Amino acid sequence: MKNKEMNNNNIDLNEELDGYVKIDQYNKVHVERIADHYVDILEALGEDPKREGLIKTPERVAKALQYLTHGYDIDGAEVLRSAMFEEEYSQMVVVKDIEVYSMCEHHMLPFFGKAHIAYIPNGHIVGLSKIPRVVDAFARRLQVQERLTNEIRDCIQDTLKPAGVAVVIECKHMCMAMRGVQKQNSVTTTSAFTGAFQNDVTRSEFLRLITASLD
Ligand SMILES: [Zn+2]
Fold it and tell me: How far apart are CA 77 and CA 116, in angstroms?
């Protein structure tokens, strides 16, 4: 059996980087600590944490939270560097409709939707599956959509050093839909561009490609 590289949350990084293995290993100390607090939270809500349906809830929530924030343990730049190849291709590469699941840092409620990402290679391309991995690295944390958008852009720009990067993210925020203004169907769109995408023609081409459908 090969040596496994474990990070401090006991998540197997090698398996995680392949993208196929569901993480089901948790840091016991963190799970216990978070779960203890959730017993108090249930009581504060007027619930009985000892009733059957809730008895394992604090532990489940603790594990869910660890999974939902596992991006803290992924180095987006490292993900890209693991699959960069020299290539002369210099047309726009677009990966669209990447699923995004994140947590708003103001309410710790989910926001989710899609990311559309493009880059124009400048000597190097990257394995296509790595782009969604970079999205996960930054989305699986406590976030705001604006910073998420910029962090993805900067990671790709600084690591791959392409002629330009474009990131558009469209998300629904549960903190808007379920509470507060209760706007169930509103979608927040953010975008960030570098290099060639600051040029109107290139940016329009990208926007046309992400709104075009294949049928
Ligand atoms: Zn919020």
Answer: 18
